[in-house]
Every structure is written in C-alpha cells, then in structure tokens.
Write the structure tokens for this entry.
Amino acid sequence: MSEISKAYNPSEVEDKWYAKWVESGCFKGVIDRSKQAYSIVIPPPNVTGVLTMGHVLNNTIQDILIRRARQSGKCAVWIPGTDHAGVATQTKVEAELRKQGLSARALGREKFIQIAKKWRDKHGGIIIEQLKKLGASCDWDRLVYTLDDDYSKAVLAAFVKLFKAGYIYRGKRMVNWCPVNLTALSDEEVIMKPMKSKLYKMRYEIAGEPGRFLEISTTRPETIMGDTAVAVNPDDARYAEFVGKFAVRPFPRAEIPIIADKYVDMKFGTGVLKITPAHDAADFEIGCRHNLPVVDVMNPDATMNELAGEEFCGLDRYAARELAVKKLDEMGLLVAVEDYENNVGYSERGDVPIEPRLSDQWFMRYPKVSEAKAAVESGAIKFWPARWEKVYAHWLDNIRDWCISRQIWWGHRIPVWYRKGVENPDINNPEEVYVGVEPPPDAENWNQDEDSLDTWASSWIWPFATMGWPDADRQKELGTDFFYPTSDLVTGPDIIFFWVARMIMAGLEFMPGQMSARIPFKNVYFTGIIRDMQGRKMSKSLGNSPDPLEIIAKYGADGLRFGVMSCAPQGQDILFSEERVELGRNFCNKLWNACRFRRMAGGGADNSSLEKILARLDTSKLDADDHGILSSLLKCAEHIGRDYESYQFNSITQRLYSFFWNDFCGWYLEVSKARMEDASARETVLAVQDICLRQILLLAHPFVPFITEELWHAMGYGGEGCFIQNVSPEFAEAFDAAGLYVDESAAADVELLKDFATKARALKAQFDMGSRRDAQFCLQPADAGKAELLRANVEKLKKLVGASGFSISESGLDAPVSITSLGSLFIDLSSGVDAGAELLRLQKERDKLESAVKSTKARLSNGDFVSKAPEKVVEGARRQLEDLLAKLAEIDSLMGRLSK
RNA sequence: GGGCGAUUAGCUCAGUUGGUUAGAGCGUCUGUUUUACACACAGAAAGUCACAGGUUCGAGUCCUGUAUCGCCCACCA
C-alpha cells in the first residue's frame, strides 16, 4: 500500500508507456479487412519547426480521434510527416549564411542545397520527438517527408499530368513579387495590412496647352517614371475634351496619352488615374486593353533601375518616393499631400510590401473546381463547424489561376527542360521543351527550368501521396484502397485555401472512381487559434507563447492535453492559460488517488475483464447509490458517444470531469466508505467501484492516454499484454448479459439524499459546527416514504454530514431548520438559538420561495399556457407549485414557532 | 465595400430541438490534517444573459435592428 505515492508523477510513467507502445507496434496501421478502416493524415509541420501550442491542440485532437477509433475496434492509422516549407526554410538558411558573410546566390544552386540539407538534418525531426512526448500515436514507420524520393516523384507526376492535360502553362503575368525573398508568391501568400500612408495630389500638364493641367491622386509617386498613360472614365463629362490628347509626365519628361477606361471611378479623388502598367495589376489590364507600353522601372529587389532615370537609379522604392515628391514640389506640380489609410499587400515571409511585378511564371488553372464545390455542398465532405463551407464556396467561386513557380532552390525543381541553343522555346513542341518526371535521356542537351514549385503544390497531394501514389505497388502495400479516403482531417481555418481546398481538388483530379472514393477526407474539423489571455495570437516576437515541453515537464502531457481540450470549444479561438493545465493535472491526480483508494481497500478481486467484475456483484445487495452511480455512468458514456459524433471535445472533458469528480468521487466513494465496513455489502460495493473506475479509464483514455494506461495495468483491468487503447469502452451490453438492470427510481432517490446532505452540512456550517463530527439532527419527514429513505441511509449520512445521529419526529424541534427534499431538518443546538437571526435567514429563503410561487402561479392561471403548452410541461408546473407551496407552508409554520 | 464570428458571475467559458428559481472551472470569502487526494474536502458570496424592438402561453435560446470587439474576403488610385 505505502508504495503507491500520494501524488501522481507523470514523467516516468509517460516515457515508460510511450516506449512500450512503440515497441509493441500498437500504433501501426496494419491492414485488417475484417475491420472498418479509420485514417488520418497529419497536417505536416515544418521539418525544422518546434512544437507550438497550436500543434498541441491540433495533434491532441487527432490523437483523441485515432485512439477512440482503436478502442472502437476500427483498423486505424495516423500517417505522420513533415513539410520542407520552401520559402520559409530557404529564408532561414539564407539568413544563417548572411551571418557568415556568405550569399546563397553566390554559392550557387548545388552548394546551397547541400548546406540547406545539412541545416535540415541538424534542426529537422525535433518536432517529431516532441509529438511523441505529447503522446501522439502515429504510425512512425510511415513517416513521410515532402522531399523524400518517392514523395518528390509524386509531386512531379502531378505536375506532369496536369501539364499534359493543359492545366499548367507558363506566361508573363503580373504576380505578387517579394523584393526580400526575390520570388513570386501566390495571392494567398499576400497579407493585406491597413497602413497609414499619404495620398499625393499632383498635376500633369496637357501637352501643347501650357497652363492647363489634370489633377491626379496617387499613393505611389515613385512609379511616375513608369506611367504610360493617364485615364479618365468615358462617361466623365469633366474630362471628355481631354481624351485623345496627351499629358506631360514630369520625369523622365514624356508625353503620354489621355485615355478613357470604364475602370476609372469618377467619384474617387479627382477622377483621373495615372496608368503604370508595369507596377499595378489593374493598370496592367488597362494597359493591355489600350496597347500601352510597359515600362518597368524597378529591379527585382525593388530598387529603381536605369529606366527610372539617372537621379532615381539605384534608390530604394521608398527613397525614390521621397525624391519624387520633392521633385514634384520643386516643379510646382504637387498640389496637396493628405493622410490616407489604405490596404497594402505584405509578403507573408519577407514581411515587406509586395511589389506587383511582371514576370515569367508557371501558372495552374485549377482542376475540378466545380466538383470540389459540389463535394462539400453535397455533404460528401463535411466541415466542422459548418460555417466554413461558405468561406470555401466563396473562394472557389472567385478562384484565379495559381502561380506555382518560386524563384527559390529549396523545393521540387520544376520538371521542365529546354533544349540548349533554342531561343524562345515553344512549350508545346517536344523537340524544344521536355516535360517529365525523369530528366530527358540526353540530359546534356537540355537546361532544366531554374524555378521550384510552391510548397503547397507539393502538399496538396498529401492524403494520397503518403499512401504511395502514383506507384501501384506502393499503393497496394500501404493500403490506399483500404485507408483512402481518409476519415477526418484536423487543421486550422487559416489554411483552408492554401491546403484544404487544394487537397480536395487534387484528390478529385488524381484519384479514380466515384466522387465519394476520390475525395481526400470525409470530415474536416477546423480548430480555433490559440491565443493568450489578452486574446493576442501567440507569437515568438510577443514572447507570449509558452513552450509546450516546459508545460509537459511541469504538469505532464496528460494534464496539458486535458487542459487544452477543456478550453477548446468547437471552432472558437482559445484563450489559453496555464491554469487550464492545472485543471488537467488535478484531474489526473484525482484519477490516481481514486484508484489508490480502491487499491488500499485490497480484496484480491479478479479485475481482468468486465465480465469477471460483474460476476462479483450480488445484485440483491445493490442499493440506491449503486443504481445512482451506474445510471450516471451509463448516461455519461452515452453523452460522450454523441459528443464524439459532433466533435464536441470540450463537452467530453466536462462530462468526464463532472461524472468522475462529482458523482463518483464526491458522492459514491464517500457513501461507499460506510458500506465497505459492512461485510455483507463490501464485495458488491468494491465491484461497483471497479466497474466505474474501469469505464472511466476507458472513456478518459483518448484524452489522457498515459495515466489511464498506467492505472489500467495497476488496477489489473488489462489482461497480460493488453493495452487499454485496444479495449472497447462499451459496457451496456455486458450489463444486460450479467442481468444487471439499473433502477432509475432508486437512482432518483440519490438526488434527494444529496440535497438532504448538502442542507444538513450547510446548517452545521451556519452554526459554526462545520468541523464538528457530533451534530445531532432531527427530521420532520415530508411523508412516510421519506422517513424510510432516511432510515435506510442513516449510516452513510452520518459519515457524510459528520453527524452523530438523525432522529425522526413528527412534531419537529424549536431549533434552526432547513427545508430539505426529505422534509424539515432541525439541527439540535445545546445552547440557545438566536431567534432573531434565524427568522431573518428564514425570511430570506421565504422571499425566494414566494417569488417562485408567484411566477409559477401566474403561468398556471394563464389560460393560454394551460391550453397551449404541452401536457408534460403543464403537469410539471403543477407539481412544482405543489412542492413550493408545501415548502412555503413549512417555513411559515417554523417562523410562527420561532416568533412566539 | 461584402461575409463570418463573439458579447452569459471578477476571469475563462457551458447552456444540444424555446419550457421549473440560468450552470461549471478558476479566482474571492469562511471553515477543515473527516481512515484516496490541500493538485483535497465542506460551506458562502457573486449574473438586468451587450442594447432596443418583435414573434410566442413562455425567449439566454427564434426574428429584425443597433453597439462594441475580432477574423476572413475584395484591383478605388
């Protein structure tokens, strides 16, 4: 007995069990066609990343789902992996190189990739070990990295297939250019930030009409040098006379046409727009419509080039802006400068404003767009919470081609080769351009495209590429036909476009069969975002992001898991604080001690199966409390089952907590104490305790896997070598088979006894006897049944309340009283009672009753209520009124007695 | 400009199809080494359910509007 410590110590237990689980291979997704398949693919974290609270939330949910699936007898697999994270990793490695005074570009592609690989080897895989600490039960034999050979081939195969099908093309387009990372970005990687900037109002002179000007507003005077037109709305009468004439661009001085285009908003500013086709996406389109020349005045790093003129050449774009304004002012062309707030697109990784830039890039016209929409609309794929369906549909409705090329080296190089010596190779001519997963056989005659693919253009095939696609043998080996489509995807709504939507399109495009067989997953659970208590996003720079590993060291992984899940309502953001983890730690400690208590009672009972425990029960010895706790257990399990179906994880933690803490420990274990001294009831009580503890461990296991595994074995519930994760939490059928029927009316009596005990304790506390164990009570019973209920439970109640006795009297006492579920309960005070204070207290209670009576009476005297409300509700109200009136009468008589 | 979410006790949140006197955890206050657990036990205080209308016999719950906060989408310079 003494070897069981008073407090649960998670660290040894957790490491011990994780090692055993892995060793036994119980996380392996070994195909068993006699079972139902259940599969999850992990959202692959960055290979060089470290565990954040976001990962904790996300992966705990996945682990809960996969463990519940295993318990439910499904053949479950959770496929883990990591992502090479192209731009993000390249940026980090480049920064590292810069510290050493080196430059990636100078090193060249081969060298850089070697260095990046070393960096990956050094920092990579840490997060995998951290996920293990958290308890994640992934099938580690299936670990996939997006730059693995097999996976890379799949990425290229997807590219080649789409190219051949005409979805992928190369073209000179306006793209979002990051001047820091020197690469194009997709629209999704641009983050709009509201900025306080200036709106410059300036004027351009009309050519040949000295003294006549057009006033123009701009936020970007540094692009004046690239202006090739001035535009007005064709319906704008103010400017009709100027259309067809020319305006004078101040520097470099040139005459540019004044054109009319519907795009121009007459109501904005002066209604005149300068057109810079090379530096603005809208201007570019207008330029196309009017055949305007495109003058690019910037270098890739957003400094000005020679076309901007001598004075500007080499200046950064913001220095150029200042200079341009200064020059305008000097030339008398600056009319006004106003404060102005507008949205500026920022590069996600570079954290600088992106520059719209015309460049040659690869684009993808998305495949299966309308089917992707239909898949979610039809319910083939369900979103939790469903409101994300609208967001998803809206994006698909407005979808634009995807820029998939990146001017970086860390990633999958575009599998396109150009024949050496051919200028402007024709992409549709196989003699000049080669597209294939493998390089051309005569590689020496070809140059491969320098660009790499957007990372998301590799992870979008994740659900089936991790199962061996497109290699038929690998697919067979890894069980694509069994595990695909995956069951649940757990991810954040921030990547609904980046990843979720694209995976759906990829699955529909590349997998065979009916729609239901091609979709990548059946359910998508969107988590909230973890924030701090001030509601701020967790970030390294704010320093408000706790290190999950420190928390695990302090509270245990189970405590962290339970704590996080307890405050993670479906789809709402989570305000996280360590107090939540304390709650989880306390829950584990309580589990530990409840089991410790049971073990201290000993008994050498056979716990090796639910049937064996049930066999120890003498059903004739079951009392109201046994029925009560078993009834609560049944309801708890049933509710939890429903909560799983609707992904209400926080609700499950509440049910576990409240059943285990309040019903089981707070009441049942306490009333057990008296009955355990009664030899005839002892065995049955211990058996009921074992049933409850066993089922609690099973129900709690997905949330707190380590401690439940430990206790499962310590309590002898598992047979030799049997892990708790393989045991079904169902028990209703076993009850039936054992002839155990829960008597709900007996269970209802427990509620009366609980109320009675609380009132009795409150009376004691009120009269400063809270710590005394010898209080004497007297009940004036509401009826004979209530008197009998008290008599049957008097021993338990003495222990629970801390009383030396409960007498029963039809006439009551002249003493402080409380109206309980069993009748008027008097506390016998040897010293006199302060009648005044007592009257005051009763008056307070009377007021409460009176207002309840009033509202109930009002309802019942309302003819509409009686005639329209359901019979059940009306009947309930009647019973309630009777009850209230009886209590009121009691109070009145007591008050009458006291005031004598 | 469009869309979505939130608003319930000091704090963080439950409240499932409308139905007794709105709940929990933390925190606060009081008491307790009662034969598992002070990471505990017992008791207590604490809410005009953001606001204004409406539907209904009945609204925290449904409808309309308003306010505040947050998020997403959007090529007005």
In short: Chain A has a mean pLDDT of 88.
